[in-house]
Design brief:
Shape of chain A: globular
Number of strands of chain B: 5
Oligomer: heterodimer
Radius of gyration of chain A: 19 Å
Largest sheet of chain B: 5 strands, mixed
Strand order of the largest sheet of chain A: 4-5-8-6-7
Number of helices of chain A: 12
Helix content of chain B: 25-40%
Order of helices and strands of chain A: EHEHEEEHHHHHHEEHEEEEEHHH
Radius of gyration of chain B: 15 Å
Number of strands of chain A: 12
Strand content of chain A: 15-25%
Largest interface: A-B, 30 and 31 residues
Shape of chain B: globular
Distance between the termini of chain A: 43 Å
Number of helices of chain B: 6
Structural class of chain A: alpha+beta
Strand order of the largest sheet of chain B: 2-1-5-3-4
Distance between the termini of chain B: 51 Å
Helix content of chain A: 25-40%
Largest sheet of chain A: 5 strands, antiparallel
């Protein structure tokens, strides 16, 4: 449905201009990526949209240390990227293929996903375990760890997101994710994403992110530390899953109770870690 | 605001509200094959090709489509000759109430433009954003398979 409160769409051609326009309009302005979030959720106080299409922020690039996904890159473009198909054994691509529908993935951008940062996002936990950082512009160009960006963001004060940067070095990592929804199109009641390096019968590196608690996804470093360096055992996985259930900030909301979310966290962490150990994630 | 859209091969300058969706503009211009369904990107009845990719036009601001190429279901046929997908949907009886059909055809057209020989799984995935409340999807899947075969020039029987 038409957003009758939107009166103007601005199309800046430089980062500086985009940021300047945001400063001028304040919370009444929203940056526009693919536009899904704006169409569905922009509050009636938003009257100006700043379309970032003219800033040349699309595409996946790589150098010796990083893979950079431009903020205007769609989920479909990322899925079709040969570079991302190879990265972390195609883990991110597998996650993206499970998100929403092809029709929506042809519109949804990484910048839009991170600008809106919904707690139920299935993409954000995957980027957290991949230790992504954001290239942003808020008067100057800088990078910020994704976790820091999520912790520090304030409603209506988004910087210009230029790109999502993924560090190389996860080639031997295996990933698994589980997103529990009531129907195929509903947002998850909870999601769990794990990435691990295993070798010589032990956990060499483990990263776990849990989202939709119903709060925003967070890394569970306390649980990760329980596993790293330990031999791989079913009992250890079960114990880590119990710890994860205790550790999350589970709350009641319209979708599920806190208690149900803890049970989900336990089941899904166990499922993901077992999948990694069994090599089901290739 | 004024936007320029190439709709089914014809370039037009159109007036659109800053907060209007592509769906609303297309229907106002007479492209009523683009159906209004859920309005939240869940049902796919409003699907169109935008720059070659199938999208929910209810989730696209008209301003975002400015300068783009749009194909609606009205643009699939070549004059009086139906698109092979439309022929196959008729032959397979893949239509009941018909409300989801334009969106299904658009998603299938996107798929076949990139994958001339899709597997059944790929067809299911490509149609996964198009809800049909009448059928069990089997006939649409068969229709896409049949259309793919015809478009490759093969015998479909």
């Amino acid at each position: 449905m038409a957003l009758h409160h939107v009166r103007d769409v601005i199309r800046p051609l430089t980062l500086e201009e985009a940021w300047q326009r945001k400063l001028e309009h304040g919370p009444a302005a929203r940056f526009l990526g693919g536009g899904i979030d704006v169409v569905l959720y922009a509050p009636p106080t938003v009257s100006t949209l700043i379309d970032l299409e003219g800033l040349d922020l699309s595409g996946v690039r790589e150098d010796a240390s990083w893979i950079s996904i431009g903020a205007m890159t769609t989920m479909t473009e990322a899925i079709e990227s040969a570079t991302l198909g190879r990265y972390a054994s195609g883990f991110l691509v597998r996650v993206l293929k499970a998100v929403a529908s092809p029709l929506q993935r042809n519109l949804a951008t990484f910048g839009g996903t991170l600008g809106s940062a919904h707690p139920w996002s299935d993409v954000i936990p995957a980027l957290l375990v991949l230790e992504a950082e954001l290239a942003i512009y808020d008067g100057s160009e800088r990078t910020v760890a994704l976790g820091t960006y999520l912790d520090e963001r304030k409603a209506g004060e988004s910087p210009v997101i230029r790109a999502i940067r993924l560090p190389k070095g996860s080639e031997s990592a295996r990933g698994a994710f589980a997103s529990f929804t009531r129907t195929g199109f509903d947002v998850p009641l909870l999601n769990v994403t794990c990435l691990a390096v295993v070798g010589e019968g032990a956990w060499k590196d483990v990263r776990i992110a849990i989202g939709g608690t119903p709060g925003l996804a967070k890394r569970r470093r306390d649980v990760e530390e329980e596993l790293v360096g330990r031999p791989i055992r079913v009992e250890g996985i079960a114990a880590a899953a119990r710890s994860a259930a205790d550790a999350i900030d589970a709350r009641d909301d319209v979708r599920a109770s806190a208690g149900y979310r803890r049970r989900l966290a336990r089941a899904l962490v166990e499922r993901c870690l077992l999948e990694i150990v069994e090599g089901g994630a290739e | 605001m004024t936007i320029t859209l190439t709709i089914n091969g014809t370039t037009r300058e159109l007036s659109a509200g800053a907060g209007e969706t592509l769906l609303e503009v297309l229907r106002r211009e007479g492209f009523t094959g683009v159906k209004t369904g859920c309005g939240t990107g869940d049902c796919g009845a409003c699907a169109v090709l935008m720059n070659g990719r199938a999208v929910n036009s209810c989730l696209v601001l008209a301003a975002k489509a400015d300068g783009g190429e749009i194909v609606t279901v009205e643009g699939l046929a070549d004059g009086d000759r139906l698109h092979p997908l439309q022929e196959a949907f008729l032959d397979e009886g893949a239509v009941q109430c018909g409300y989801c059909t334009p969106g299904m055809l658009i998603s299938a057209a996107d798929l076949l433009s990139r994958k001339p020989s899709p597997t059944e799984e790929e067809i299911k995935e490509a149609l996964s954003g198009n809800l049909c409340r009448c059928t069990g999807y089997t006939k649409q899947i068969r229709a896409v398979e049949r259309a793919a075969e015809r478009m490759r020039g093969g015998d479909d029987e």
